[in-house]
Design a protein that fits this description.
The protein is α+β, with helices and mostly antiparallel strands. Helices cover about 60% and strands about 15% of the residues. The radius of gyration is 54 Å and the shape is rod-shaped.
C-alpha cells in the first residue's frame, strides 16, 4: 500500500514538472496511462485522472497567458515602431510579419484602398511566392477582402475555395489558388470618424494558411489590433507627408519672396547705376558693361544696320548676331512692344519714338525672367538716350568738321599748314593716308543723303560734308581696298535711305593738297557709273579702268597714265632705260620676243630681261586681257602726249 501511494504522489509530482516545462498534451495523458500500468488502485487512478485534467486546464491557461503576453509584446513593439516612425514601408512590413508570426500562418498581407479607382490593391506581403497574387486588385464586394472593405467587418474563411459568402471572380480565384491559400482571415483597417459621421476603411489586413483552418475569436481580435496599428501608421505617415509638403510650400514661398526682394533690390541698384551713367554722359560701352554685369551674360549693342557698336560681359568670343535674325527679331519686338527671344538670344530694339537707333542682343540666358527682362528693356531705353545725346553732339561737331572738309575740297588759296592745324584740333591727322568717298543719290532722297553719310561715320574717325550736291566723306585708310570701302558705304546708305546710292572711293593719299584731286577723280567716276548703269553700286578708278577715262565728263588722262604706267615711267626717268619703248614693241610684235628684238635692234636676251623688269614693276597679271588693254591705251596716250609736247 505505501508503494502505491508513493506511485500516486510521483505521478502528481510529474504533472507539476510537466507544467513547468510546457510539455505536450500527450505527455500529460501518458501519466495516467503509466499509473494504470503500475497497478495503482481505482481511487488513486480517479485522483490521478482529475489531476491530469486539472493540469491540462492549467496548461491551457498558461499557454493562453503566454500567448497574450506575446501579443501584448508585439503590440507594444508595434506602438514603439509607430512612435519612432521613419519609413512607412518598414512599419507595414513589420506589422504584416508579426501578424504572420503571432497567428502562425503561412502568409500575411495588407491591401489598401485606391481612392482614384475605388478598389483595393496589394501593398505589403510576407510569405508570398506568387507574382500574380502580389499584383491582385479587388473591387469593393469582390472576394473576401472586397467584402471586408465593403462591410467594415472582419471575415474568416476556413476554406476559401468552397466559401459562398462572398463573390468569387476568376482573377481573384486564380491569384489565391496560384499562391495555394485555403484558410483566410481578413480584418479592416479603419480610420474614424470618417465621412457622414462614419468611419473610413483604408485597407484590409490578412492572415492565411495553405491548409484548412478555423480562426479563433482571440486570433481575430489580435489581427484587428494589428490592423488598428497599421491604420494609425498610414494616417500618421499621411499627416507627416502633408506636414512635409506644407513645410516645402512654405520654404518655396519664402524662397520666392527672397528672390523677389533680391530682384527688386537688384532692379533698384541697376536703375540708379544706369541713371548715373546717363547723367554723366557715359559711352554706350559703359552701359553695355553695366547691363552685362547685372544680367550675368554677354551683351552686344548694334547699330540699325547690324554692325557692332559695343560688346560686354565676355562677349569677345561671341559672334555678332546674324543680320537676318537680328532684323527679324527687331521687327517682331517693335510690333509686340517688348523684347523677344530667338533661339538662345534675346533682342531689344533701341528706339527714339519710331526711329530705330540700334538694337541690343543678350546671349547665354534663354530663361530670362521677369525682373531681368524688364531691366534688359530698360537698358534699351537708356541706350537710346545716350545715342540721341551722342548724335546731338555729333551733329554739332559735324557742322564744324564739315566746314573743314569743304575748305579742303575748295583747295585754291588755302594754306595747307593752316588746314592741317584745324584738322589736328578736330582730332583728324591730315598727314596720314585717307580715302575720299563721293556719294550721290536720286533727287527724292538727296536732302537726306548727307545726314545718312554722317550717321554712317557715327562712332568712326572722319569728316563729312555736302559739296556740289554730293555727300563727301573723308575716312582714314585702314588697308581696305578702295572699291570694297565704296561698296560697303553704298550698301549701307542705300539700305538706310531706301533708294539707290552710288559711291566712289578715291585715294588713298595724305596731305590737304591731294584731296581736291581725289574729289575730282570721284566725280569723274560717278559720271562714268551713270553711263554704265551702275547706279546704287560702289566703285573706284581702278575698278572702272580706262572706261572711267573714256566715259567720264572730265577726262584726266594724265592721272590715268600715271596710275597705269607710273612705275615704268619712273624707272625710265631715273635710269635712262627704254622700258616704255620695249612695251610698245612687245605689243606691236604680238608678244613675240624675236619680232620685238628686230624692232628694237637688240639681242633677244635683252628683250627678255626688259620684259621681266616690266612684270616686276606692273605685276605678273599685266598681260591679262583687261590689264593689257588698259596698258596699251595708257601707252598710246603717253606717246601721243609726248609727241605733242615735242612739237
Amino acid at each position: 500500500m505505501p508503494q502505491l501511494i508513493t506511485r500516486s504522489a510521483a505521478a502528481l509530482g510529474h504533472l507539476v514538472d510537466l507544467l513547468t516545462t510546457d510539455a505536450s498534451a500527450e505527455e500529460y495523458t501518458a501519466v495516467a496511462a503509466r499509473a494504470r500500468a503500475d497497478g495503482v488502485g481505482e481511487p488513486d487512478l480517479r485522483e490521478i485522472d482529475r489531476a491530469v485534467s486539472t493540469a491540462l486546464g492549467v496548461r491551457q491557461v498558461l499557454r493562453r497567458q503566454r500567448r497574450r503576453e506575446a501579443e501584448l509584446t508585439a503590440l507594444f513593439d508595434t506602438a514603439g515602431d509607430l512612435a519612432a516612425l521613419r519609413d512607412l514601408d518598414a512599419v507595414l512590413h513589420s506589422i504584416v510579419r508579426r501578424a504572420r508570426t503571432l497567428l502562425g500562418t503561412d502568409t500575411a498581407y495588407l491591401t489598401l484602398v485606391d481612392e482614384a479607382t475605388k478598389d483595393t490593391f496589394m501593398r505589403v506581403t510576407d510569405g508570398s511566392v506568387s507574382l500574380a497574387f502580389q499584383q491582385l486588385r479587388l473591387r469593393m464586394g469582390e472576394g473576401l477582402g472586397g467584402l471586408v472593405a465593403q462591410t467594415r467587418r472582419p471575415y474568416a474563411s476556413p476554406d476559401y475555395r468552397t466559401d459562398e459568402r462572398f463573390q468569387h471572380t476568376q482573377t481573384i480565384d486564380h491569384g489565391v489558388l496560384d499562391e495555394g491559400l485555403v484558410a483566410i482571415l481578413g480584418v479592416p483597417l479603419i480610420l474614424g470618424p470618417g465621412r457622414a459621421g462614419g468611419r473610413d476603411v483604408i485597407g484590409v489586413l490578412f492572415a492565411s494558411d495553405r491548409s484548412p483552418r478555423s480562426f479563433s475569436p482571440d486570433e481575430v481580435a489580435l489581427l484587428s489590433s494589428l490592423a488598428a496599428h497599421a491604420a494609425i501608421a498610414i494616417d500618421t505617415a499621411k499627416a507627416l507627408a502633408e506636414a512635409r509638403a506644407a513645410a516645402a510650400e512654405l520654404t518655396e514661398a519664402n524662397a520666392v519672396i527672397q528672390a523677389h526682394a533680391t530682384s527688386t533690390q537688384r532692379a533698384a541698384e541697376a536703375h540708379d547705376r544706369l541713371t548715373d551713367l546717363v547723367l554723366r554722359g557715359s559711352e554706350v560701352c559703359e552701359v553695355a558693361d553695366a547691363v552685362a554685369e547685372f544680367l550675368g551674360g554677354p551683351l552686344t549693342v548694334c547699330d540699325p544696320r547690324g554692325d557692332v557698336l559695343a560688346r560686354a560681359g565676355g562677349a569677345a568670343g561671341t559672334s555678332a548676331p546674324d543680320p537676318e535674325a537680328l532684323r527679324g527679331a527687331v521687327t517682331r519686338a517693335r510690333a509686340e512692344g517688348r523684347c523677344v527671344r530667338d533661339g538662345d538670344v534675346w533682342y531689344c530694339p533701341v528706339l527714339a519714338g519710331q526711329e530705330l537707333l540700334g538694337s541690343l542682343a543678350f546671349h547665354g540666358r534663354p530663361d530670362l525672367d521677369g525682373p531681368d527682362r524688364r531691366l534688359f528693356e530698360r537698358a534699351g531705353t537708356i541706350t537710346a538716350l545716350l545715342l540721341l545725346l551722342r548724335r546731338t553732339v555729333a551733329e554739332t561737331e559735324n557742322r564744324v568738321r564739315g566746314e573743314l572738309l569743304t575748305d579742303l575740297l575748295d583747295g585754291a588759296g588755302r594754306d595747307p599748314a593752316l588746314l592741317a592745324d584745324r584738322g589736328r584740333r578736330l582730332g583728324v591727322d591730315l598727314n596720314r593716308p585717307h580715302l575720299v568717298l563721293v556719294a550721290e543719290a536720286e533727287q527724292r532722297v538727296h536732302d537726306k543723303l548727307t545726314a545718312a553719310a554722317q550717321q554712317y561715320l557715327f562712332g568712326r574717325e572722319g569728316l563729312c560734308c555736302e559739296y556740289e550736291q554730293r555727300a563727301v566723306m573723308l575716312i582714314p585708310d585702314d588697308g581696305t581696298e578702295p572699291g570694297l570701302a565704296a561698296r560697303a558705304a553704298a550698301d549701307h546708305l542705300s539700305q538706310g535711305l531706301g533708294a539707290p546710292v552710288s559711291v566712289v572711293a578715291a585715294g588713298p593719299g595724305s596731305g590737304p593738297a591731294a584731296l581736291p584731286g581725289f574729289y575730282a577723280e570721284g566725280r569723274r567716276c560717278l559720271s562714268a557709273m551713270r553711263v554704265l548703269g551702275l547706279t546704287g553700286d560702289g566703285s573706284c578708278a581702278a575698278d572702272l579702268g580706262f572706261l572711267g577715262v573714256l566715259l567720264g565728263k572730265e577726262q584726266d588722262t594724265a592721272s590715268f597714265v600715271r596710275r597705269v604706267l607710273g612705275p615704268v615711267l619712273e624707272w625710265d626717268e631715273r635710269r635712262g632705260t627704254e622700258l616704255v619703248r620695249t612695251l610698245q614693241a612687245h605689243f606691236a610684235a604680238g608678244g613675240s620676243h624675236v619680232r620685238a628684238k628686230d624692232l628694237l635692234h637688240v639681242h633677244v636676251n635683252t628683250v627678255v630681261q626688259r620684259i621681266e623688269r616690266i612684270s616686276a614693276l606692273l605685276g605678273r597679271d599685266w598681260e591679262s586681257p583687261e590689264r593689257a588693254l588698259e596698258i596699251q591705251l595708257a601707252l598710246r596716250i603717253h606717246l601721243v602726249s609726248r609727241a605733242g609736247q615735242r612739237s
